[in-house]
Amino acid sequence: MHRLTVQYFSPADPAAFDERYERVHVPLVHALPGLKSFTLTRPQALGAGAPYLVAELWFADGDALAAALGSPEMAAAAEDAAKYEVASTTMFSGEVHETLG
């Protein structure tokens, strides 16, 4: 499995961010080709600097992730993500290795 993780920090208006993210962005992500799973987490800080929202997009392998990243659907999701008023956004991807089982 490969995972694309997006962290959103300190939205200017959390209620407006949440409403637009759920109404507009989530459906755009659901349309990504090859998407196996999409999870959202609102972390509770165990120290300083926790993001406001963490989105994790799961794909079968690196080829599926690459195809999604190059798709028109991802372009639409990226265009929408650029409209959010947040202090910062961090995005990274990688192969996931299961260590239990």
Automatic annotation (TrEMBL):
PANTHER family: BLR8190 PROTEIN
SUPFAM superfamilies tied to this protein: Dimeric alpha+beta barrel
Residues of the EthD domain: 12-84
Molecular function GO labels: oxidoreductase activity
A Pfam cross-reference name: EthD
Entry protein name: EthD family reductase
Superkingdom assignment: Bacteria
